[in-house]
Amino acid sequence: MPPDHRRVMRQFVTGVCVAATYTDEPTGRRHDAVTVNSFTSLSLDPPLVALSLRHESRFLAAILASRHFAVSILSGQHEEIARTFAQDQDARARAVTSMGRPGRASGALLLDGPGWIECRLDRRISVGDHTMIVGEVLATGLGDNDGPLIFVEGEFRSLEVAKP
């Protein structure tokens, strides 16, 4: 990696989301969720989105198994949620049981926030040390928008949005 690559990319503002998926086990469905800022819209027609996860991610393995995921966009009031789902899988597992509701189209958990998207896995692409997951959008929804939670210079920040 070029020496300044990480420093330069810290200047790029990204939104903060929680991606969720599940695995079906003999004892029932086990949900998992993780904070991501590598989320983007790829296409409007057909509606496709993408997120990138490390190849060795257990969360990635769960998406590949279920073939479904959901992404909840976080508001500036959700910094604690973002921190919670940025932890290891065991800590996330304790928190996920009290968060969100299963989406009707994907079965993955949705959190309250400015918006959410439910997806079916369309394809995966190996890119460097990550796998890009492309999702076909199955359903979307809007919630209250108190301004998004953003990530820049290694910190969470709140961005105020002017109301019409």
Automatic annotation (TrEMBL):
SUPFAM superfamilies for this protein: FMN-binding split barrel
Transmembrane segments: none
InterPro entries: Flavin_Rdtase-like_dom, NADH-dep_flavin_reductase, Split_barrel_FMN-bd
Positions of the Flavin reductase like domain: 9-158
Keywords from the named record: Oxidoreductase
Gene3D superfamilies linked to this entry: Electron Transport, Fmn-binding Protein, Chain A
Organism superkingdom: Bacteria
One Pfam family linked to the record: Flavin_Reduct
Protein name: Flavin reductase family protein
Organism from which the protein derives: Glycomyces niveus
Lineage: Bacteria, Bacillati, Actinomycetota, Actinomycetes, Glycomycetales
